[in-house]
Request: fold
Amino acid sequence: MREELLLYLQELPLATMLTAFFGVLTIIWAKKKIDDTESQRQERISNLDKFLAKNTDTPVDRPNRRARKKALQSIEHRFTIIRRIALFFLIFAWVIVLVFPYVGSIPATYISVFAASIGVVVGMMARPLIENTIAGMVISFSQPFRINDTVVVDGHYGTIEDITTIHTVLKLWNWKRVIFPNSMMLSQKVINYTKADRYQWVHVEFFVSYDCDLDEIERLVKREVVCCDNFIDYEDPQFWVISMDERYFKCWVVAWADNPPSAWQLGHEVRSRIIKIFNRHGIKASKVDFNLTPEVPDPPQMTGS
Reply:
């Protein structure tokens, strides 16, 4: 048996032997790459401290430990599926490449049956399943967002709790869950507050009447921001007049917070303090608003006469 196998291998073309050799190396490399990526994700999750988009009390005992355990289980489950799918397609492609030179010697009936079987299998799989599975693999390797990232998706603010091969689970700031298909997560805009770093630039917007002292307002507002518990002195608070209308002018006060949950709390503190200080000083203001992602208005277009 051994001699017959060696004789058969000697008769194989050199190209076929090289294809088989490099195919095996590719499969081994792909499996190692997937294993290394899984280990890196698990290590990152193990070192995380918080799993919240907003600081809040919870009825769950040790919520961070529970969330970390759930995230590690999710990563293990997801990469098990990815490993099986990826290795299956690699082996399938490898076999096709090996068999391709001998296609001419295979009866056309066998080829037709094989092609029909593939068509039936693909036809039985629903289109959304295929789209979401591919999107889940793309998300796992390209990492536009990761577990525990604080994001805004379709107007929902929360933390990525789980990423499966089919869908992504977003835990909202009020602990509700929104489940998005992975294809949707790739096709729409996702605002990620923790992709590069966790520092957050918070701005509070309010309108003030023209009969108020602008310098006094700036001094009062900056003083209140510095007194907030969640303010960090990475940079002094900034005060800007953004626009003017017939009755009021729009102001922004901006400051830094250490992370998204602190930014949420800082916005609340600044708004509350502004309302109280304006009431004490009799300052007429309206629409004290808060946003984590301010968009600077476009400058007015100048037209010549």
